[in-house]
Amino acid sequence: MPEPEGMIMDALLDALREAALTGRAPDPATRRALLELDDAATARQAGRRLARTPAESLRDLRALRVAIVATCTVGSFEPLLWTGLVGAGFRPVIDKSDYGAFDMTLAGATFADHGDPDIVVSLLSASYFLPREWSPVAFEEFETAVRARLSELTGLVTACAQRTPATLILHTVPLPAEVRDAFLGLADRARMSALWHRLNAELLDLGAAHPQVVTVDLAGALADLPAAARDARLHRYGDLPYTDEALHHLAGLVRRVAQAKQGLSRKVLALDLDNTLWGGVLGEVDAHGVQLGGLYPGNTYKELQRTARRLRDQGVILVLASKNDPEPVEKALSDHPEMLLRNEAFSVRAVNWSPKAGNLRKAAASLGLSVESFVFMDDSDFERGHVAAELPEVAVVSAAGDPAYMVDSLLRHGWFDVMSLTDTDRRRPELYRTRAMRSDFSEGFGSSQEFLEALRLTVEVAPVTEFTVARVAQLAARTNQFNLTGVRFDEATTARMRDSPDHLVASVAVSDRFGDEGVVGALWVECAAGNWRVLNMVLSCRVLGRGVELATAAWLVERARRAGAELIESRYVPSQKNGVAADFWSRAGFTGDGTVFTVNPGSAADVMPGWITFHERSAI
């Protein structure tokens, strides 16, 4: 019998208290429980407890500086944001602007009490856009006032974007019923609603004009919320335009943006088969007897397959993790007329009777990814519990219960969200399929040197362009193993450095006999006269071990030599995950103390690997 909800909430709060008392961050299971909280009151209570936790206790989580600016009272938004951000693996520092100082704070970007924030969240109320006095019979005046206020906000956002490298998060604003219903004529009411929809549409469009701006659709999301978004008494009493439930939902949307910006998005979806991708147990009913397509519940399983296929189209790698005999599964995937995910849709297929936790470890190893990149979906309480216990870094999603809710369970936490979708994202599933092909190919050689020479590897380094800046910023956010300093330059900062005469930002692309890997690396360099300084260099783990990093270093040295630089200074800042790169600068011919390394470009040794064909391309 499942535990009562109150007992689960008490256990969660006790786990937070215990973590704080023992000086450690909440463990992955506790953080996962924070993300799954639907009850706003408990989430608020958890957030307040987390906000009182000593910062040192959260040191193992990723730092995130947040500023909140608001056109109204913030209410419970700050503790709710704490809950979501810690649940996602962040160590937040949150500053709030003073009440009534929204315009001034945003215009001057004066919210940096703890340094420039990573994200700025603007909490907007409908009253910000509404004139103080208005009449339904003077619609043109009403519309003019609303549009003027929107124009002012656009100007403030533009000014702020010019003064801070932070990502600015706005949201759409629901139209209060007291405004909509004050228009008695149905045609006038429709006109009023259309105006408000245009306002929200223009808020959403701000991101197209300003890469630093992200607008989340709170008004649309609240349509699915089983609670009131507005409490008239709270609004009148304390200028609180949103209920805790609505603010909890907004905190979740902000958390998803932070997750995407900071590179904590997942790349792999591992799926069970029986009662997940189809209804029924294959071993009992055979392929023709599984429920898939047609009426309920078969249509729900087909919709999950359709959703997984859409995710794959956008770069999510699909892995099959099923306890079944391989032959019947192969037949079902190949022959069932309603099957949308055929064999080729999966980059790895783990169909056997081994524990699923072990299969996920092996799948991660074959893909060259960490299990932290995985989301696992299964209907079995036992299998989910076992994976959660053995691999707490994996995000576990339940397919149990009514299958009509499976798609919502998979998508609601935004595990796979990215700031912008790149060409490499779209091609990722195929790229990782070819990785397995390379692994098989390598087994036929007597040495790694022979394999690398037969791979016909080509490396191209080029200055970042408007077409590659998003991919380069994504690599900065998501690369952990070969990330030399841990500095994660976002798209806006990278674009500014690209246009600066004192900086060089370059992308690294790789191809071989199996295909084009696309842009897999980048480096950011400060180019002062005579002295170049490498701010960071990142390289996808997908291409490690092939000499690509040495080819990039050789290009950097040659580029600096041609520019007349007399010294290149670089750093290695160790982290929990980048030990693989500890000796890179030494291997590249630099000398140093383990942290700071230098080389004279004029006398540096050539470290370009002989098996690599190298191309240098000028900016377009």
Tell me about this structure.
The longest helix has 25 residues, at 139-163. It contains 23 helices and 19 strands. The termini are far apart. Helix 5 packs across helix 6 and helix 6 (139-163) runs parallel beside helix 8 (186-209). It is α/β, with parallel strands linked by helices and 620 residues long. Strands 11, 12, 13, 14, 15, 16, 17, 18 and 19 form a 9-stranded mixed sheet that branches. A 5-stranded parallel sheet has the order 2-1-3-4-5, sandwiched between helices. Strands 8-7-6-9-10 form a 5-stranded parallel sheet. The mean pLDDT is 90.
Itemize the secondary structure elements and their pairings:
Layout: H1 5-21, H2 28-35, H3 40-51, E1 62-70, H4 77-87, E2 90-96, H5 102-108, E3 119-123, H6 139-163, E4 167-171, H7 177-180, H8 186-209, E5 213-216, H9 218-221, H10 232-238, H11 244-261, E6 268-271, H12 282-289, H13 298-313, E7 317-323, H14 326-335, E8 348-352, H15 356-367, E9 374-378, H16 381-390, E10 395-398, H17 406-411, H18 423-442, H19 448-454, E11 457-463, H20 469-478, E12 482-483, H21 491-498, E13 503-512, E14 515-528, E15 531-539, H22 548-562, E16 567-571, H23 584-587, E17 591-592, E18 596-599, E19 612-616
Parallel strand pairs: 1-2, 1-3, 3-4, 4-5, 6-7, 6-9, 7-8, 9-10, 11-19, 15-16
Antiparallel strand pairs: 11-13, 12-15, 13-14, 14-15, 16-18, 17-18
Helix pairs in contact: 1-3, 2-4, 3-4, 3-11, 4-11, 5-6, 6-8, 12-14
